[in-house]
Amino acid sequence: MALLVRQRDGERFLLGDLNLIGRDGACDLQLADTRVSQHHARLVWIEGQWLFEDLKSRNGSSVNGKPVAPGTHQAMAVDDVLVLGAPDETWRVHDLSAPGLFARSVHGTTVTGVENLSLPTTDQPLATIYAQSTGRWVVEGPDAVRPVSHRELIVVQSMAWRIFLPDVQRETRESGDRPLGIREIGLHFSVSSDEEDVEITLRSGMREEQLRQRSHSYLLLTLARERLADQARDDVAEVEEGWVYRDDLCKMLRVSKSVMFLQIHRARKQLEAAGVAGAFDLVERRAGSGQLRLGVAQLDVQRRGSED
Q1: DSSP codes joined into one string, 130-174
Q2: CA-CA distance, 157 to 160, in Å (whole number)?
Q3: 82: burial class by Cβ within 10 Å (0-12, 13-18, 19+)?
Q4: pLDDT digits (tens, 9 = 90+) for 94-114
Q5: What is the tens place of the pLDDT at every residue in 275-290?
Q6: At what angle do helices 217-231 and 257-273 cross, to 10 degrees?
Q7: Residue 32 dihedral angles phi and psi, to the nearest 5°
């Protein structure tokens, strides 16, 4: 992602698609020096390039020592040096890639992601932002999932975060390098007689990979059984298979909503680490309904020691 670094102290600033720079509290990059104007300059991503514009600031701006005429757009390059109104506000361009997925707190803390983002931390997520298979971006928490929009302000654990969503298509991968999609895999569950031991094997064509047992393995088994039960019926359409209410699932697992959310998060991350694209659709959520289901349709559950 595009990045500016201040020369005097190494402060880093990730660029969203539109970045207002100045002293005003509404600026994306807020600078305290009184020689910087309230709305001093801006950096924007337009048609695949980053453009710098001075907004008729009092003390002006320069790029690589050359003054920038107000109202003009100057294309930026890596290692360009920006001076914004004062020598202390000298920033070097360290990266100029396309805008990516990140969140910035009101205190300036930045959390980045590639295909998904966890707040406040990856290890202890209270909210997860990701794109569903439809392309719609959502924010998911223990209680609900809902759409989230670019630059929306959300509150997580009393902290406000501004969400920045990527708006460029990812490069098409060569077919030989294409990762497995969530709809292309199957999951085989091998369960001990006391159900204390749940082994999960990911299958796709000739590929088989046993997933390491985790606390979320039983959650996936429970959701798999719900979907298999509906698959055995003739009167249930595929789109209706396996849906279970969140509160009912918590009762089945004897866990709180926050623990269930953490287990779902870790299950998705495990599949993502196994190279599965769209891993966040491993567990699907119905917005506004409190329902969820396993997003994998190819399922097999076997008691340990029983015949195939």
Answers
A1: EE-TTS-EEEE-SS-EEE--TT-EEEETTEEEEEE---SPPPPPP
A2: 8
A3: buried
A4: 999 999 999 999 888 999 998
A5: 898 899 999 998 888 9
A6: 90
A7: -90, -20
Which residue(s) pair with 84 in the sheet?
Answer: 61
Indicate the burial class of 297 (C-beta count within 10 angstroms; 0-12, 13-18, 19 or more). middle
CB distance 96 to 43 below 8 Å: no
Distances in Å between the Cα of 261 and the Cα atoms of 29, 45, 66, 214 are: 34, 35, 53, 14
Residue pair 51/75 in contact (Cβ under 8 Å)? The answer is yes
Q: Which residue's structure tokens are 């500016």?
A: 4
Contact 51, 37 (CB under 8 A): no
Instruction: Evaluate whether 77 touches 93 at the Cβ level (below 8 Å).
Output: yes
Tokens standing for residue 56: 């008729």
**DSSP characters over 35-71:** TS-TT-EEEEEETTEEEEEE-S-SS-EEETTEEPPTT
Q: Cis omega before residue 120 (within 30°)? A: yes
Sequence letter at residue 227: R
